Amino acid sequence: MTDSNTSPAPLGRWPETTRPMGIGVMLPLLDGGAFGGQPRFKDILEMSQTVEACGFDSVWMPDHFIFRHEANNRTPQGIWEAFTTIAAVAAQVPRVSIGVLVTCLGWRNPGIVAKMAENIDEISEGRFILGIGAGWHQPEYEMFHLPWDHRFGRFKDSISIINPLLRTGRADYEGEFFSATEALNLPGGPRRAEGGPPILVGTNGPKTMRLAAQFADAWNSDWHHDPSTVLPRLQALDEACEEVGRDPNTMVRTSGSNVALPGYLGRRPNPIEGTNEQIAEQIAAFRAIGLRHWVAGLDPCNPAKIEEFAKVIEILDRS
Fold first, then answer.
1. pTM
2. Cβ atoms of 90 and 128 closer than 8 Å
């Protein structure tokens, strides 16, 4: 784990920032989510433009087919498709980094994922972050008869192909679920010479952490109310890096928290709350444990609330 009193390790392919810990905003694509209704594309674009204008480091979008939560009596909630939305936003928002948090690798052939990532990196002129995971929301699988079994094995095969396709433009891999033979990812985008867009793995499982240590630029530990719940996972990440022979300091560590703003809708659970100063202090605690990027799940989330939250980050930046 990085000590906050030492100089941070180089970010590698991860986007540079003037902050010790970059700040991102998770956008609501979900019907009945923190936006308060179904956001249209014009709303998503306006929120993205506001994030950029307010000086945040990144915009993030979730990737799902649908949500059926027990808390909502399994009533289906629609959500816009992430990659097409990200591509459209990337073409119109010129400076902020933009990523998917995260896409499930069990849904698509890894060649398609690598191709989409390369093309969005081209559209964004090198600002895309590919966040990936093994999947967790079973109703999505059931709806389209997607295989729920062997999620780790499918993830392992997929990342073993995506990584070289983005890094070198070529992959040869024989797996149980996905394989590639003299597979090419051409043309290369703006970061091909430096190894392509960064890969972030969202996971807390020990086996998948080892894959993150082997292949990823960054790791995400999910949503947390306070950093005490992140600390044991940071230790597990260090151990995973050491197991595969990687310097743990070369892994960019990221996390996120839900934040209750005035008018809280209760759509993002277990949020950080309080005055602007209190919220800034709680975010600073994540910076103190060595995270290099932190994502805000705002509730409510709309352009006005993003501007309101920017005042919190102004306080954080001064601390």
1. 0.95
2. yes
